[in-house]
User: Fold this.
Amino acid sequence: MKKKTILITGATSGIGKATATLFAQRGERLILCGRRQERLEELQRKFTCESQLLNFDVRDRTAVFTAIDGLPDDWKNIDLLINNAGNAHGLDPVHKANLDDWDAMIDGNVKGLMYVTKAVLPQMVHRQAGQIVNVGSIAGIEVYPNGNVYCASKFAVDAFTQGLRLDLNPYGIRICAVHPGLVETEFSMVRFKGDEERSKKVYDTLTPLTAADVANAIAYMVDAPPHVTVADLTLLPTDQANATVINRKK
Ligand code: NDP
Ligand code: 8X3
Assistant:
């Protein structure tokens, strides 16, 4: 079977890294994106599949287009885009929140995802083929206390995903979203600005999802027959009923 060319944003950690690992094991062709160059290079050394590394900040519109437009010709036809890069910054009530945190979430999780999509889409439309998987969140389905702007960013990802599905309907491009609940990654370390104790508490009183669980869900959407679009897949730890109801052990 023809190898897929797959662009994964946020491949340096967590869900993106687990997804890259899964597709590397299948021998696909990977375009690994992130800001931490040493981690990108480490993945490239570890993987035996063909790969390209793109180092850019998704918030930097020029950098996004320069990197993607600058891919070698035989890497330009991207079959699968996994829009995963993103983070939460802070968990504060609106009146106490830090505006830089808000900018980071709106610029990265929302505008960054849109820029990457816009840069990748023309060749998919031209070829009338391709698939996009956006990593949303349970936070894009329900708002939780102090989640305000992070939740808003993931609601925006959901709205944009729906818009893509409508606009690209004539072109046979599959538009999918996965909406995970709590996944143990570097996510909480970023949200809590390196506070290890606080981050650990998010996960150690339940059995959270692993990044590999989400990678497997993405693979399920990718492996569905071409006439099937798994439009939305919400994936929760069994200990989590929704955004706020969690069966914590202590
Ligand atoms: P991690 O912190 O482990 O990974 C985040 C990834 O995103 C890193 O590879 C990071 O790479 C990249 N990234 C973040 N900001 C930027 C940026 N401005 N430009 C380029 N790359 C960026 O967290 P997760 O793996 O958990 O998060 C991945 C996605 O999953 C996010 O969209 C998150 O919102 C979503 N999610 C996470 C859940 C969880 O509980 N963990 C649950 C639901 C959704 P680098 O720093 O090298 O640039
Ligand atoms: C990440 C999961 O519940 O921390 O999107 O928002 S949550």
Observations:
- The pocket of NDP (ligand 1) is lined by residues 9-10, 12-16, 34-36, 57-59, 84-87, 108, 112, 135, 137, 180, 182-183, 185-187, 190, 211 (CB under 6 Å).
- The beta strands are 5-8, 29-34, 51-55, 80-83, 131-135, 174-180, 232-235.
